[in-house]
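Lesson 9: reading folded outputs for more than one chain in a single document. The general rule is that every protein is listed as its sequence immediately followed by its structure tokens, and records are never interleaved. Here is the first one.
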Amino acid sequence: MGLFDMDALVVGAGLTGGVIARELAEQGCKVLVWDRREHIGGNMYDYVDEHGILVHKYGPHTFHTKERALYEYVCRFGEWQDYKLTCGAMIKGEFTPTPFNFHTIDTFYEENEATALKAELKDYFSGREFATVLEVLNAGNERIRKYGEFLFAHDYSLYTAKQWGIAPGKVDPSILKRVPLRFSYKEGYFDNEYQMMPRNTYVEWFKNLLDHSDIHVELGVEALEHLSVSEEKLLMDGAACKIPVVYTGALDELFGQSEGSLPYRSLRFEWCHEDIESKQPYPVTAYPEAEAYTRITEYKKMPVQNVTGTTYVVEYPLMYKPGAGIEPYYPVLTAESQRKAAIYKSMSEKISNLYPCGRLADFKYYNMDQALARALVVAREVIV
């Protein structure tokens, strides 16, 4: 089935591309899906390693949302199981939960000081369960402010500098708001009503999502070898492209980086296996004070797997470079990068049959539920 037999082209077989392809197919459109990787599922791709442990190739993924409609949507294509992710950090040689909570205070403060700090936090942020580290750092209470400074010095500033490769002062404040401080002993990374993982695998879920007679998937296809932009027109192999194109890749690369490159962070994964029962108390643990890596994910704990030994991966962040054989994962959100991204967005809007969507194309940090919601919106906008 060739491109000219299709009603639409979707570039990317990850969550965004897969959902849009399915939505278009259910409207009676013949959809061709390209992905430059040799597998479906995008960054959610998982597999069983040689030790019999289910792992995620591109970093840990759990689905969480407060929206019942999004929960019901993902349940259409596979069975899920409840899974509440717990995370931690190692600071000064001690493990502590993240988001930081009253256990954190008990760990790093003497009893009398800890009691006073917890009481003042509850009073200062009366009626609230959380605050961002920025709020704590700017608090009018000196004891609370010093607590924020301790966490910023031993965790936030160090982790941010490694993760994003820039000084914390240049990072968009929304990044520092992602992991708040909790004013209780409650643990758990998310508070959404629906938190889960597939009962089997993400790949099986994607197979069901893409299992439609009007969806044709081609893997190992580099879209940018065929797609280009000239004079506000989308070209396919040098000729005008007549069909809608949903593009989920880095938008600056589609436009030949004519306005300069957009910064993305990538990751290098160091895979390890040990014949031990547990590497760390939390499935995902940040190591802000480690020299080069940011976190370790222990996969036998997400979901819990009854296996001997443990497989874990150490993440080393690095700057993404097109053509270097590494993946772009996170847009680096600064005032300058967002200004440049807005220019590319404006350029894309002048091409009537181009629909950028997803974390890379939108240059936004989406969680899985946010990516799903955005994909459903864009699917309704595509004119076939």
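And here is the second record, again sequence then tokens.
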Amino acid sequence: MIHGAIYCFLFVACRIGLFFYHPVFRVVGREHIPKDGRLLICANHSGLADPIWIIMALRMGHMPRVMAKKEAFDVPILGWFLRSIGVFGIDRDGMDISGIKTGIRCLRDEQQLLLFPEGTRVKPGRQVKAKRGAVLLAQKTDTPILPVYLTVKRRPFSKLTCVIGEPYRPTFANKRPSEEELEQATDDLMGTIYRLGENT
């Protein structure tokens, strides 16, 4: 994870850069963020800069690990930069065992991991079936999920709101949940996330 001066520099540089697109950035529910320990941060995804906005909203003092689509690492300079700040890739179209194992190691090492269960940017009014990887990671590592909502309908210079919900652990009848249970838990997670945005 990135700590200290480098994190502070990136934090300030990103906020200055993004100020010209969304000068007003409102954060609700920051008191729900656990002080320490492993954490799975799950958010809806509608904009390219979503990971940056969420990291700024969390204000953890260090950068959490981020799970991103593996295609981003094919861009030479971008791929190098992402790896250097602790981002790792995942294959969105199949069961990426390597990516899942990396996520499990992060959480078992008491790190915080940010991912987007929808797996892709979702435009306003559109719906996609979220991936089950998030609840699977939470179940395998006994990690609380922190649901986060970011404003979906955005215009240049409009206010952007981030709502942070209360952390919770998905529950299952057995240690090895069925595919149906994982799918239901994933639907429940996305429902929780989008309900956070109902009053924004």
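What the second record shows: The chain has a mean pLDDT of 88.
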